[in-house]
Design a protein that fits this description.
Number of strands: 4
Protein name: Sulfurtransferase TusA family protein
Largest sheet: 4 strands, mixed
Shape: globular
Oligomer: single chain
Radius of gyration: 11 Å
Structural class: alpha+beta
Family: Belongs to the sulfur carrier protein TusA family.
Length: about 80
C-alpha cells in the first residue's frame, strides 16, 4: 500500500490521535493515504467513528501487539 504520510501517536490518548490525524488529513490531497500508529486501544472505535463523521475512508485497521495501525484515505 502506497502511504503518502505517516504520523506516530504512540503514548497519546483520546482525543489526541484523532486531532493529529485530522490536522494531517487537512494538509493532504484528496485520495492520499495517511497511516496512523497508536497505542490507545480506544483508537479502534475512535477512528471508525471519525471516518463515518468526516467522510474520509478507513481503509484498514491492524492490531500489531500493543500497537494499532489505522490507514485513512483523504476524501
Amino acid at each position: 500500500m502506497d502511504v503518502q504520510r505517516e504520523i506516530d501517536t504512540r503514548g497519546l490518548n483520546c482525543p489526541l490521535p484523532i486531532l493529529k490525524a485530522k490536522k494531517a488529513l487537512a494538509e493532504m490531497l484528496s485520495g492520499e493515504l495517511l497511516r496512523v500508529v497508536a497505542t490507545d486501544p480506544g483508537s479502534l472505535r475512535d477512528f471508525q467513528a471519525f471516518a463515518r463523521q468526516t467522510g474520509n475512508e478507513l481503509v484498514e485497521q491492524v492490531t500489531a501487539g500493543a500497537e494499532f495501525v489505522h490507514i485513512l484515505r483523504r476524501r
